[in-house]
Design goal:
- By secondary structure, this protein is α/β, with parallel strands linked by helices.
- It has one domain: Aldolase class I (TIM Barrel, Alpha-Beta Barrel).
- Helices cover 39% and strands 11% of the residues.
- The chain has 13 helices and ten strands.
- The strands form two sheets. The protein has an eight-stranded parallel barrel with strand order 3-4-5-6-7-8-9-10, surrounded by seven helices. Strands 1-2 form a two-stranded antiparallel ribbon.
- Helix 2 links the parallel strand 3 and strand 4.
- The chain is globular and about 60 Å long.
- The protein starts with a helix and ends in a 20-residue tail after the last helix.
- The model has no long low-confidence stretch (mean pLDDT 89).
């Protein structure tokens, strides 16, 4: 199975996944019977790297390889342009290594307009570049406002011929930070970012950490489903089902140890209330992916409907808390204690 075919199957398997009970269900917020605010006057505006966006959430990285992704990314980009939402594209490794830019050409930037747009590349693939400067190709192709480097060791380990040598990857990330003309974001892909790694990344100049915990799309399960030889590695498919950290665990641990670090939350974000809870826990922005994949396979209008629901739910959350702006959400709005240890 080549890279393009594997990416096509990624989409199919991701659409089949059924989300389990979510970590955000354990978080309750403080209701205000006298909110003293007007719902229609609540603002959600924020900034991503100097550009204004209409909400503190963004379309998180989904798919970047096969031709199907062109349609998916176009629907997402057009919806983001319409509503003023930021967007991150899927992995651009195929564009870099195989000369294909399907779905991730100038057409994505054209569709998203002036909205914030983030490039995406796998950190483990950095040693395979001839030079770090080669990343300029994927930045320029979409006029990216930031570069996301994703960490996916527990996905690669189950992938046929996956990249399992992660020796000194931090050094390659440091080279990217020293060179990059745009801010650099590092994100996990569904297992949660740990404190030790977060500290190492912060020390080399990473601008943003996206914790990307358990609860959303399960990329390890996708690779297991596509690996015809998986029984040489695993006795059953669910051995590592509970590996990693939930989004609230990862976010809580990192904000406790690195209180001034800018953190994004993604992984299992189902609605605007989950966005509000993430921001109460210290996230400055929140990534949404799985809940938008099916609408993105249908139409731009379907994505717009879903994003408007997120905006409405977030605004209602602020209203119920008596907060005039989403940037006013804080840990003080959480009912009870949240154990981050």
């Amino acid at each position: 199975m080549n890279n393009l075919e594997r990416k096509r199957r990624h989409i199919d398997v991701a659409l089949e996944q059924q989300p389990a009970r979510n970590c955000f269900d354990s978080i309750r917020l403080r209701h205000r019977a006298l909110p003293n605010v007007s719902l229609k006057e609540i603002t959600l505006d924020t900034e991503f790297f100097g550009k204004t966006a209409a909400a503190p959430f963004f379309v998180s990285s989904m798919t970047g390889g096969p031709s199907e992704s062109e349609r998916i990314n176009r629907h997402l980009a057009e919806a983001c342009n319409e509503l003023g939402i930021a967007m991150g594209v899927g992995s651009q490794r195929i564009a870099m290594q195989e000369g294909s830019v399907s779905g991730l050409t100038w057409s994505v930037r054209n569709a998203v307009g002036a909205r914030p747009l983030f490039a995406n590349f796998g950190a483990v693939n950095l040693p395979q570049l001839n030079a770090i400067q080669d990343l300029g190709r994927i930045l320029d192709s979409i006029e990216a406002d930031a570069l996301i480097l994703h960490l996916n060791p527990m996905q690669e380990v189950f992938q046929t011929n996956g990249d399992t040598d992660w020796t000194n990857i931090i050094d390659h990330i440091a080279q990217v930070c020293a060179w990059s003309p745009v801010p650099v974001v590092v994100k996990e892909v569904g297992f949660g970012l740990d404190v030790q790694s977060a500290k190492e990344l912060a020390s080399i100049g990473i601008n943003v950490l996206d914790v990307a915990g358990m609860g959303g799309t399960r990329f390890a399960d996708i690779e297991i489903a596509l690996n015809a030889e998986i029984r040489q590695t695993l006795s059953t498919d669910n051995v590592f089902d509970h590996w990693g950290y939930t989004t609230i665990e990862s976010l809580g641990m990192i904000k406790k140890e690195l209180p001034t670090m800018t953190c994004w939350a993604s992984g299992g974000i189902r609605n605007g209330l989950d966005v509000a809870k993430s921001m109460c826990l210290g996230a400055s922005a929140v990534g949404i992916a799985g809940k938008l994949l099916r609408p993105a396979t249908e139409s731009t209008d379907a994505v717009i409907i879903a994003l408007r629901q997120f905006m409405s739910e977030l605004r209602i959350s602020c209203f119920g808390l008596g907060v005039r702006s989403s940037i006013g959400l804080s840990r003080s709005h959480i009912l009870g204690n949240v154990d981050a240890d």
